[in-house]
Sequence to fold (518 residues):
Amino acid sequence: MSRLLRAFALLLVAAPAALAQTATTPDNPVTFSGGDRDNGIHSATLMNMGISPRAVALGEAMGALGGDPSSIFYNAAGLSQVKLNSVFVTGSQRFGGTQLAGFAATFPTTFATFGIGARAFNAGAIDQTENNNIVGSCRAYQLALEGGGALELQKHVSVGGSLFYSQETLCSDSRGSIGVNSGIMLPDIFGRLTLGGGIRNFGTKVIFDQQGFRPPFLGYAAFALDLFKHRNLIQTPMLFRGEAIILDAKIVGQLEQPERSELFPKFGIESTVNGVIILRAGYQGGEDNRKGISVGAGINVGQFRLEYGYRDRKNANAPFFSFDPIGDEHHVGATLFWGGPETNVPVSPVIVTQPIDTAALNQAVRDAVASQLAALRPLLDSLRTHDVEIHSDAEMIARYVVPVHFGFDSAVVRDTDLVVLGQIAQVIKQVYPNALVTIEGFADPAGSADYNLKLSRRRADAVRAVMADRFGLPERQFKTVGYGEQTQRQVNPGARKDDPGALSNRRVVFTIDATRRY
Fold:
């Protein structure tokens, strides 16, 4: 693993440097202040346009963000974190009266996550001239189709790639380009840091009127840092139904080196309230009219997400464009998640040549259910002997009150509690392998309410770490929340420190919701 990390670090340093060494300046670049220095030196410019509201709002620093179907447009390795089927659609009104639309879909399987994406750019009407006189106009547009996938090589390494086809049309003349994208992502380093990097738009030339241009080839290195506890709430939002208010924030950054152009630094911050309300801001640097601030917002309810992104295009306040003829940029997108890897397993057809004995079939089902219950009964009985309370809050929601108690002012899981946690892990593996599990932490009323709230969250996070690191359960299956010293949730109201019963106030509770998948 250490060798892989060193190799990846070398890639991040070497890729932009190699591109810079091979960079050349076009014969007549546009060089006015704030202008496009790479103007007219690339084909298939669609492949380098910000497409999703999330990306635009974050300054397009998406190289280390995963779990989003639009990752196929930025770093396909991020698709490995999409654990549900998804469909993403977006449309934008861009500067100069142009429009951009996009579509992406993901299909996770037990082996890898696959994705497809499509983009369309309307460049509007282009004036046709003859002897410096305008003789008419024609349409100009671009289309692109992309497909690929990603897989997790191990816990902290994901790789991905895609193939693309891009078509550019000017009046009645059309040309196409094919190419590849590749990326790598190292998620959850130290529980908070994700690194990403790769190359994009390495494709064949597009030749118009004997002039050949390649797509906008670039290399990039990126990071994403969780400022608070690693919760991943944007993938598992918590609706405000008696839940504690949890703020989360993530800082992202990216260094991008396009071929034959200047270096672009990009930064952004994404904050959430219980994963439901999303706020974003970003900034792009570089000597280009992409330079500037962008903002965005979104709402994330259940398995549906609605997002908006805005960028003010002023050509970096270039005097030549001081009256701002270009205008603003508005992006709107929606994402729907459903299903999961188990829904994408191919089913072989069964050809029945004999009459079906329904009575025997029903008896076989009953026997299988009885056998499974018999196998689980000793485990459930053992939990009860360890004073685990099992409650059914609803038909598909179970609450396990586990006697995992903590020392005063401590968030360290005791060795004596590992046995019962191992049994809970077995129940989750056998009965709830795909269910979302919430670990609730509590504290006794000693100390300030704010301190106890943070302490209870640390306790819940400590138990989640044990379930993942010791018992091999997916860390993303668990959501953690702290309730501090909430009076109505204390087992022995008022008991603190060494008071009788205070230990029961310093506990965790597992709530397993089989209606929601992690």
